[in-house]
Design brief:
This protein has helices at about 15-25, 60-70, 100-110, 145-160, 175-185, 205-210, 230-245, 260-265, 280-290, 295-310, 320-325, and strands spanning about 35-40, 45-50, 55-60, 75-80, 115-120, 165-170, 190-195, 200, 250, 270-275, 315. It is of the alpha/beta class and about 325 residues long. The longest helix has 17 residues, at about 145-160. The structure holds zinc ion (ZN).
Length: about 325
């Protein structure tokens, strides 16, 4: 017998749907998914985001309503993005205001959905007048170390309000160590720290910036976010954050960076998150709209790719549509 064709026929293993179901990996369960959401001030506000079909900016009361069907499907968590209207300043102090939208929503969500893992994005860009992720120094660049002090205050205020996970996304050097220390000093040592550890300066964030009103008014973020053309530096970003005490690492965006996910998976035993960003979500909608593919089939294939590449958890705008994408579990 030969070790190849015609004795070996791989089609035998996938001849029927039950054979395929038997040998395929299980799809990622709903518990692996986290839904990123955009909180706004006030009540009864649900404003559709035109560049992200099916997603809205919501006030806390509307978010609670929207979370019911999501939690019912078994989705594991939610990631909160806050913003301020009219309260922007040079240092983004609204981000650590105890009466900010995130700080006020946290106890409401925890009370209504005690089992849901509630995560918060920790950054300043939706709260600074200039839209950068930290205060600007005299040279016009973000002042790294000053940003770390402010980011620590944001993380502590979120954790104190009940966040299960704080997730710094500013890509400042040393931000994880600074936040870990600040949490410890405030007796918040049980709060998980998920670092946006390998976050690229990407063209795939466009729809998000519409949702968050967080586009920089001048310049870009290439001075602090990782370069997509430098794999080694991108991997070092995650390895340093692991050394600084992160509990969970992340690759963002996800679909253009499956190689980075897979390599990081080989280098760390920490849980790995993939952030399936706004542009990745919206491009499938745009393709489906043009008739270039079936929406939920494309979503299923792309999300399965993230799990296959090594993601333990998937942050995705597809989370509320889990059952439509993967069927009943
Ligand atoms: Zn930011």
């Amino acid at each position: 017998m030969s070790m190849g064709f015609p004795d070996v026929r791989l089609r035998r293993l996938r001849r029927t749907s039950m054979l395929r179901a038997m040998f395929d990996s299980a799809p990622p369960s709903p518990a692996k998914f986290v839904w990123p959401v955009f909180l706004v001030e006030g009540d009864n506000r649900k404003e559709p985001i035109s560049s992200m079909p099916g997603q809205s900016r919501m006030s806390a009361d509307e978010l609670l309503r929207a979370l019911h069907p999501v939690a019912e499907q078994g989705v594991g968590g939610v990631l909160l993005f806050g913003q301020t209207e009219g309260g922007k300043d040079e240092g983004g102090s609204g981000a650590f205001d105890d009466t900010g939208v995130v700080q006020r929503a946290l106890p409401l969500i925890k009370r209504a959905f005690p089992d849901l893992v509630v995560m918060t994005d920790v950054c300043l860009c939706a709260y600074t007048r200039h839209g950068h992720c930290g205060p600007l120094g005299r040279d016009g660049q973000v002042d790294n170390d000053a940003a770390n002090g402010l980011l620590s205050r944001v993380a502590v205020s979120h954790a104190a309000a009940g966040a299960d996970v704080v997730a710094p996304s500013a890509m400042m050097d040393g931000q994880v160590a600074a936040i870990r220390e600040a949490l410890a000093e405030n007796s918040l040592e049980n709060t998980l720290l998920m670092s946006y550890s390998t976050k690229f300066a990407s063209s795939m964030y466009g729809p998000f910036r519409e949702a968050e009103n967080s586009a920089p008014s001048a310049g870009d973020r290439k001075g602090y976010q990782a370069s997509f053309a430098n794999l080694r530096a991108a991997l070092r970003e995650s390895q340093l954050d692991e050394a600084e005490g992160a509990d969970i690492l992340m690759v963002k965006p996800a679909l253009f960076y499956l190689d980075v996910l897979a390599r990081l998976r080989d280098r760390t035993d920490l849980p790995l998150a993939a952030y399936n960003v706004s542009g990745e979500y919206s491009m499938l909608h745009a393709a489906a709209e043009q008739g270039y593919g079936e929406l939920y089939a494309m979503a299923r294939e792309s999300l399965t790719a993230l799990a296959r590449a090594g993601a333990d958890i998937i942050l995705s705008y597809w989370a509320p549509f889990y059952t439509r994408i993967f069927g009943k579990q």
